[in-house]
What does this fold into?
Amino acid sequence: MMDKVSLGNKGPVCVTPVWVIGTYDQAGKPNASTAAWVGMCCSVPPAVAVSFRKATYAYENILQKKAFTVSIPTEDYINEADYFGIASGRNTDKFAATGLTPVRSELVDAPYVQEFPFILECRLLQHIEIGLHTQFIGEILDVKVDPAALSDGREPVIEKIRPFFFAPGSRSYYAAGQQLGKAFSVGKTIG
Amino acid sequence: MMDKVSLGNKGPVCVTPVWVIGTYDQAGKPNASTAAWVGMCCSVPPAVAVSFRKATYAYENILQKKAFTVSIPTEDYINEADYFGIASGRNTDKFAATGLTPVRSELVDAPYVQEFPFILECRLLQHIEIGLHTQFIGEILDVKVDPAALSDGREPVIEKIRPFFFAPGSRSYYAAGQQLGKAFSVGKTIG
It folds into this structure.
């Protein structure tokens, strides 16, 4: 096996989920911002982490409202999700521009995207200054999923949600592929 | 469009990357732990966040050594990656059990998995108590990639790395699918 090639400390992760973060501004205007520096960070309480630069409108909104939502888009909305990451809510009504529908969460002071199939409603637990980005940790108060994206057992079905991913290296999006195997199971052949 | 179905606050995210976290214990034994509560969290400095329960061996090791690596497995190593998430380094030598090769990082006091194509070497910046999980934020000091997984322009190529994902709902793994479009580009048709 050849030695690995060092790419230096510029390079970020291989591939990361694409999440659309919903917030209200001070005037109550709904905003949607695409983020890829995101992840689950705790099981109890269930919590997610999303990072934003201080310059973004989402940063201000989350700190003011102590709340945000995560709306996970399907492949069908790749253009809208990309737009949510390009435009700024400071000078644009991004919901109006895309024609997508903001829905006021009943649990937190933030809107989610009606057309996207998988929603997390989060209240801000803490925020952590790291550097260019600030990380916001939000407790998941509810998960809401389109009925058409659920199995008979009411589990979210990846093949129906069709989430997609961001590859920072090539600055491109990738689909979710086929199911490969069961977790906490296929590894039992070892050891 | 039908109303969304509330799944309550039990449910975590839709789909999340699978990372193998490399650490040394106090005796210098290399350990590998699979984590899915992970993500990129800052661009400058480049940093990742990985969460572990206090009960895990990785938790102790990271706090002691102030360092960890991220080794991203290809599909070919799904069994080994799953095993790294099932077994505990407290009572097992997981590298020996899988036959995979620990490589000592020259930059941080942690090992990575030689056979996996995409590596991040991280020094611990801070750790955050959230609840059941503690989040470790690590600065990426270097990204190392197998030469066979790079393009001519030395960018990581997803189709060659073939990373995979964990879907918590169905407790299963999913492949990366096809490239869908260019980020910061396809959304320019809007607005």
